[in-house]
Each structure stands twice: as C-alpha cells, then as structure tokens.
C-alpha cells in the first residue's frame, strides 16, 4: 500500500475516500482514530489516504483533478469569488 495524500481534515478525507470508491479504488484512511488526541499531537500529518500500489497513480490523478476543480461561472458567491458553496 502507498500513502498517496494527506487530507486537511476528516471531512476531506472521507469525501476523497468516497470519490475514490466511486471510481473503483479502495482507499484506507490512516489516523482516523488519532482524532481524539488533537491538541496532544501535531495538527498536520494525522490523516493519510492509502491505496494499493496498483491503484496509486490513478488515485493521485483523481485527487489532483479534484483539487484543480473550479466552480462553474454563476455558481460562486459574489462576495467570495473562486469559492463554490454547496
């Protein structure tokens, strides 16, 4: 297994895990059980998405595409350009 991405928080981790699952890639979230130790442990590096070696490159491409996505014109709030509110 390879650690392919370090999500910012549990919400992003679960969102990406679901996205990868929808593409047929099983991802495991390392560090989920460390969430209760926040404050005692460093903030960064708690979470990591792991996939099988054979899925690593495709998973990285999907996550890169997700991170590069922009809101469609007209779907972003005027007071916060470049941000899509769901």
UniProtKB/TrEMBL annotation:
Alphabetized SUPFAM superfamilies for the sequence: GlnB-like
Residue ranges of every copy of the DUF2007 domain listed in the record: 1-65
Origin superkingdom: Bacteria
InterPro entries named among the record's database cross-references: DUF2007, N-reg_PII-like_a/b
Cleavable signal peptide: none
Protein name as annotated: Putative signal transducing protein
Originating species: Pseudomonas indica
């Amino acid at each position: 297994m390879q650690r392919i991405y370090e999500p910012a928080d549990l919400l992003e981790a679960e969102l990406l895990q679901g996205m990868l699952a929808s593409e047929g890639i099983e991802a495991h979230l390392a560090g989920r059980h460390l969430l209760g130790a926040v404050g005692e442990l460093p903030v960064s590096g708690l979470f990591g998405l792991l996939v099988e070696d054979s899925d690593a490159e495709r998973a990285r491409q999907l996550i890169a595409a997700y991170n590069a996505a922009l809101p469609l014109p007209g779907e972003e709030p005027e007071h916060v350009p470049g941000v899509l509110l769901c």
